Each structure stands twice: as structure tokens, then as C-alpha cells.
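FORM 12-B: Structure-to-Sequence Request
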């Protein structure tokens, strides 16, 4: 394993396996809904490039790091998918603040980004309910260990992936009917 900022974290390999398994399940489920799903963003870059981008702190590096990790395409529409594979024993999921803000800016520019959490709870990035923002480094370390600012998203505020996809398909169908 190379010397990346995350390489020496305890449980990193275990988290990586859980993440890959979750992402594979997300791809399969979206495929069952008729979407072609492909890797996108940082996941598509060679390891040595990813390792370097993780260490850089400029706007371009952050933009690439925080791009969603999947692209879902159907006959009628496309959207990005951000998989959040965290294991949370609390009533909330966490989302890196810089990543959240970066993806929110992309959504405000018109890009669709669907965030999928464990249990296949999901929501469009601009509709996520933020319960709290943590920026104090002592609290950050205590709650998620990263010392990076993050937001809390209540699990109860997230609908099932099935209902989000059904609403998307209904919206697309009604938009198509209006265009005729």
C-alpha cells in the first residue's frame, strides 16, 4: 500500500471492501431500474494521480476529488450518483462539508446528483436536510475521526431509493408529455 493520508488509518482496508461491495450493489439496483451506470470522477483516475490529488489543496484538485463517483444514464435522462457507504450507529449520516458544498454548487449549476446511503436511503443533493454542521476540530475528531468539517444528515429525513427513482421517472414522463 502506498503512503497516502488514508493508508495508515485503522480499518481502512475493511472500509474499502465495504465501500466496493456497497457501490456494486448500487450499480446493480440502478441497473434493475434500467439505468446504465459507470464509474466517474476520482474513481476513474490512476492510483498515483488520486494519491497526488488527495494531497493538494487547490480548487481544481478539490473539484476533481469531490465529483460524484458514478454516472447513471437512461434513454431519457442522466444524473450523477454519490455513494456514501459509511456505517453509522447514530441517527445521522455524515457528509464531508467541502464535498457537500462542492456538489451543491454543481447542483445549483443544473447538474443532478443523487446521494445514496446505506439501506438504500437517498436524496438529491439539493434536498438533503442538514441537521448540524461540525467545524470544531476537537468535536470532529471525537465524532468522525477525520478532523475535517462535516454535516449531519438525519436518517429519518431520507426516502427510499425506490421512491426517489419512481418520482424521477414520473417527472420525466410528465415533462415529455408536455413537450409534445
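FORM 12-B RESPONSE
SEQUENCE OUT:
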Amino acid at each position: 500500500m502506498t503512503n497516502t493520508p488514508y493508508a495508515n488509518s485503522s480499518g481502512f482496508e475493511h472500509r474499502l471492501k465495504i465501500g466496493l461491495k456497497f457501490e456494486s450493489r448500487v450499480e446493480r439496483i440502478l441497473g434493475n431500474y434500467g439505468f446504465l451506470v459507470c464509474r466517474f470522477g476520482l474513481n476513474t483516475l490512476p492510483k498515483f494521480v488520486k494519491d497526488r490529488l488527495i494531497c493538494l489543496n487547490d480548487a481544481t484538485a478539490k473539484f476533481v476529488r469531490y465529483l460524484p463517483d458514478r454516472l447513471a444514464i437512461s434513454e431519457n435522462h442522466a444524473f450523477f450518483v454519490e455513494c456514501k457507504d459509511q456505517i453509522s450507529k447514530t441517527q445521522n449520516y455524515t457528509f464531508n462539508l467541502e464535498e457537500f458544498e462542492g456538489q451543491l454548487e454543481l447542483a445549483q449549476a443544473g447538474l443532478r446528483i443523487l446521494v445514496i446511503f446505506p439501506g438504500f436511503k437517498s436524496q438529491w443533493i439539493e434536498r438533503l436536510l442538514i441537521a448540524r454542521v461540525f467545524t470544531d476540530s476537537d468535536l470532529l475528531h471525537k465524532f468522525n475521526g477525520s478532523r475535517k468539517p462535516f454535516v449531519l444528515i438525519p436518517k429519518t429525513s431520507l426516502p427510499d431509493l425506490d421512491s426517489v427513482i419512481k418520482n424521477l421517472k414520473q417527472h420525466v414522463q410528465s415533462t415529455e408529455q408536455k413537450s409534445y
